């Protein structure tokens, strides 16, 4: 018996202009064949790939970016100089069709550059150069003021982004992560997205990650201040190459029940028939690939080829004047007797599933550390190490091997006696685990690793 195909691809959806749309959609299943009348778990990879933009001069949507920068006392000296260098880089790479604003905060909030077209770069750079360090950290005040500046010129047909940078704890104004994440989510409804950069050991990574996930932006962890310009350059390059906005993935249960998307907060559509799960994703950039790991429960099924679930992706195509595009794939799976090897899971799908589960496990390890339970944290990481080592024995893979080495390093650092030696050390380890989890839940391959 020939092994059935386990992938479903939709690549050439046409937009209103009659040209191929920006995103290619592929669905890959963990199994190509399942035995009749046997319940179990099926894994599906939903792969979204943003195709390269056509080579047309000046063919990009304008950007409207608001920088919100921490200038509290802890940023004085070299860190603040790197921040100003990064801000100047952003301005230098914007055009007259773009909009820019700059808000700074310590215990007070100041708008250094009100919302403006980027036509007088020399003036903007001179205002950036005048920034000096100050006192405490009114993160919420700076963030809200920065959003207000961007919203002055928020419109369709452009990318509207707030980029927040801080090295400290929010200790003035709103400090509750839940409330600030809700604020970030609320601005997405007005057409903005939120990215954040955390610098050093003292900032609240839970707060910044929550804001970025709610705000559909990107989170960056920077150990050393000299990395700040490179992070800003990466964020700006993405904004200049956005190909799809307002990306929305809908999964509908059919013969199989969609349990959830691993590592993401998704919504169940109330009253939907069949039952639907919806996930809103950040903007996608040229050549970016994003993979969602979906868990599906299969009840006992009779012989045949039932439709297991359906996936639909809706988005605004930035390369086609923000045309609304909807593409979908019905996913079916043969149910039949066959030789045992045809029932074996696809090793590539298994790899991605286990790397994603490892990323989620790192958040659980952090929770254990927060509770002072270093042994539980080690046990969580050790279980993931054992699983990946067994997988590597079946088929050596560079991504798996790299993550095995990373887990071994993390285990060597999660020793109970270290908790009382250096609180800063624990803080740094916690930030690394949260950052690795964030990246691993949202990307695949080498980008999963912490190195």
Choose one word for the global shape: globular
Mean pLDDT: 87
> Structural class of the secondary structure composition?
alpha+beta
Strand percentage lies at: 25-35%
* Number of helices in the DSSP assignment: 10
Helix content: 25-40%
Q: How many strands?
A: 17
H and E order: EEEEHEEHHEHEHEHEEEEEEEEHHHH
Query: Could you name the CATH homologous superfamily of the largest domain?
Result: von Willebrand factor, type A domain
Number of domains: 3
Largest sheet: 6 strands, mixed
- Low-pLDDT windows of residues: 444-451
Could you provide a short overview of the structure?
The chain has 451 residues and is α+β, with helices and mostly antiparallel strands. 34% of the residues lie in helices and 27% in strands.
Which key terms come to mind for this protein?
single chain; 451 residues; alpha+beta; Immunoglobulin-like; Rossmann fold; six-stranded mixed β-sheet; 17 strands; 34% helix; 27% strand
Task: Outline the fold blueprint.
Blueprint: E1 7-10, E2 23-29, E3 40-50, E4 63-70, H1 78-92, E5 99-105, E6 109-117, H2 121-129, H3 139-151, E7 159-166, H4 177-188, E8 193-199, H5 205-215, E9 219-222, H6 228-240, E10 242-253, E11 257-261, E12 267-269, E13 276-281, E14 284-285, E15 289-298, E16 307-317, E17 323-332, H7 347-370, H8 374-394, H9 398-413, H10 423-442
Parallel strand pairs: 4-5, 4-7, 7-8, 8-9
Antiparallel strand pairs: 1-2, 2-3, 3-15, 5-6, 10-13, 10-14, 10-16, 11-15, 12-13, 16-17
Helix pairs in contact: 1-2, 1-6, 4-5, 7-8, 7-10, 8-9
